[in-house]
């Protein structure tokens, strides 16, 4: 319903004969009627929906998955559902374009969860053999209504009945929709609310109130993910273990990356292979940045050479079928050993990371992590004499008038991590930056130092060196657990890791 429109080539339209239609619809073994087993995440998704239900009593809540997005002409990008939809249904990889979760208020309180989607079409339908986008002949069978119901423990209905379901008692019931997930569904909700849909999908006519209400829903759904349950923590451990394997593969492949030329792409491909094999794919485009490219924070073009003697910064994460993703950065000496100056910068970043990690404990604020790491970064730069003449450490740390050290680390130190690599993005500053750390939160700690090749303020020997170290950390009752601790991190351990993997001994 709300996937992007594809451009169809008219030369592909072959009218089928009646004989063909009858023939292709017949002669298939009957489909299994075995109930699909309930998935482990179903109970957790039910708990999450209960929390949403409690927050918005008596309201109809509309959470679309979103549709297919055209890459070019009649080909689409791989489908990825909106995170709020995945979180509240438990559906993950490839599931289900154009579907919509509706939490429908029940007269006696609470909500009924209904997934509206496009179920498997029968064999006598045109879709079965002729629909290259959704048809079973082309993309494989989709779930049936019964499949979704038994797998997820929700009610399921055909997507064609969504419009009526939205409009039911619309005057009497307040509707909210996650607008960003699907503009067309948002417009339908606007219509059901009685406003006039504008081209931006915003409501005019009634009041501006419905959009504020929508915003409130989106923020709640984003923010409620900030503390992870046990099942989610397990998924994050698995995503990190898979990411570790990908890094092992990169290390094993470094000599070949050097030999082949365009080595950053080779490294990207190795990680992508593991991501696709171990999980659903990449949680975000991998940054494979060798030499001076490491100084481009989001270097994802990955077109460069990997050269002996350089460092390669790899920032990559495997996303599982459940859509939980890791987000790890390691900066590796291509030849297996850090030079003295590379090690000096690496160890400064490591010290900053240790300071950041030490600040990860309940009661501290999220922003305390950055403050702790940043202080080390600023101190090192001050000691090395890189700050302008006369600028003291305390002056550069003054957030209002200082910040000069940020020339060499322009990004933040941490973000929440989970279904989205930058998780819980909709939260307001008071709940994110100024929010208190609580057990169950998972976040990154990832300071860096970046000396561009053309940075004339940096000492010549620093130029072209960029280092970031990033781990994924769980807040526990009494502090934190570094979930990626199995991936070597100190300069000595990184060298030993490379030596072990490349000698075939494994890490
Ligand atoms: Mn990150």
UniProtKB/TrEMBL annotation:
Annotated region described as Disordered, given as residue ranges: 189-212
SMART domains: AMP_N
SUPFAM superfamilies per the UniProt record, alphabetical: Creatinase/aminopeptidase, Creatinase/prolidase N-terminal domain
GO biological process: proteolysis
Cofactor: Mn(2+)
Gene Ontology MF terms in the entry: manganese ion binding; metalloaminopeptidase activity
Biased composition regions of type Low complexity, renumbered to the chain: 194-209
Residues annotated as domain Aminopeptidase P N-terminal: 39-186
Entries under PROSITE patterns matching the protein: PROLINE_PEPTIDASE (PS00491)
Any GO CC annotation of this UniProt entry: cytosol
Transmembrane segments: none
Family of this protein: Belongs to the peptidase M24B family.
UniProt-recorded name of the protein: Xaa-Pro aminopeptidase
Phylogenetic classification of the source organism: Bacteria, Bacillati, Actinomycetota, Actinomycetes, Micromonosporales
């Amino acid at each position: 319903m709300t996937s992007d429109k594809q451009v169809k080539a008219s030369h592909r339209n072959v009218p089928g004969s009646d004989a063909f239609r009858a023939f292709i619809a017949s002669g298939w073994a009957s489909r299994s009627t075995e109930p699909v087993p309930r998935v482990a995440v179903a109970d957790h998704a039910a708990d999450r929906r209960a929390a949403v239900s409690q927050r918005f009593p008596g309201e109809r809540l509309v959470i679309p998955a979103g549709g297919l997005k055209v890459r070019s002409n009649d080909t689409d990008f791989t489908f990825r559902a909106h995170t709020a939809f995945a979180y509240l249904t438990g559906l993950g990889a490839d599931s289900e374009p154009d579907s919509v979760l509706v939490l429908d208020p029940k007269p006696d309180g609470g909500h009924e969860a209904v997934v509206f989607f496009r179920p498997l079409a029968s064999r006598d339908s045109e879709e079965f053999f002729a629909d290259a986008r959704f048809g079973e002949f082309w993309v494989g069978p989709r779930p049936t209504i019964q499949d979704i119901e038994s797998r997820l423990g929700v009610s399921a209905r055909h997507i064609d009945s969504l419009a009526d379901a939205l409009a039911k008692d619309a005057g009497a019931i307040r509707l909210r929709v996650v607008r960003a997930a699907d503009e067309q569904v948002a417009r339908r909700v606007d219509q059901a609310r009685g406003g006039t849909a504008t081209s931006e999908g915003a409501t005019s006519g009634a009041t501006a109130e419905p959009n504020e209400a929508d915003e409130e829903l989106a923020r709640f759904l984003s923010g409620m993910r900030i503390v992870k349950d046990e099942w989610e923590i397990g998924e994050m451990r698995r995503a990190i273990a898979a990411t570790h394997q990908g890094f092992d593969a990169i290390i094993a492949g470094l000599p070949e990356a050097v030999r082949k030329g365009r080595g950053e792409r080779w490294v990207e491909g190795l990680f992508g292979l593991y991501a696709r094999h171990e999980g659903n794919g990449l949680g975000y485009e991998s940054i494979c940045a060798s030499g001076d490219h490491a100084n481009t924070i989001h270097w994802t073009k990955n077109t460069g050479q990997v050269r002996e003697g350089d460092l390669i910064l790899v920032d990559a994460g495997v996303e599982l079928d459940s859509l939980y993703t890791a987000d790890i950065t390691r900066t590796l000496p291509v030849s297996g050993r850090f030079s003295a100056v590379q090690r000096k910068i690496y160890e400064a970043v490591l010290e900053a990371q240790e300071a950041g990690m030490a600040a990860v404990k309940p009661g501290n604020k999220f922003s305390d992590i950055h403050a702790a790491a940043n202080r080390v970064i600023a101190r090192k730069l001050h000691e090395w004499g890189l700050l302008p003449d006369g600028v003291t450490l305390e002056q550069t740390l003054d957030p209002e008038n200082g910040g000069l050290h940020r020339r060499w680390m322009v990004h933040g130190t941490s973000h929440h991590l989970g279904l989205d690599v930058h998780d819980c993005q909709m939260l307001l500053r008071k709940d994110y930056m100024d929010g208190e750390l609580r057990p169950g939160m998972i976040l990154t700690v990832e300071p860096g130092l970046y000396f561009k090749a053309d940075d004339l303020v940096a000492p010549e020997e620093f130029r072209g060196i960029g280092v970031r170290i990033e781990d994924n950390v769980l807040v526990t009752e009494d502090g934190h657990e570094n979930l990626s601790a199995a991936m070597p991190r100190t300069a000595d351990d990184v060298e030993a890791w490379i030596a072990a993997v490349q000698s075939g001994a494994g890490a």
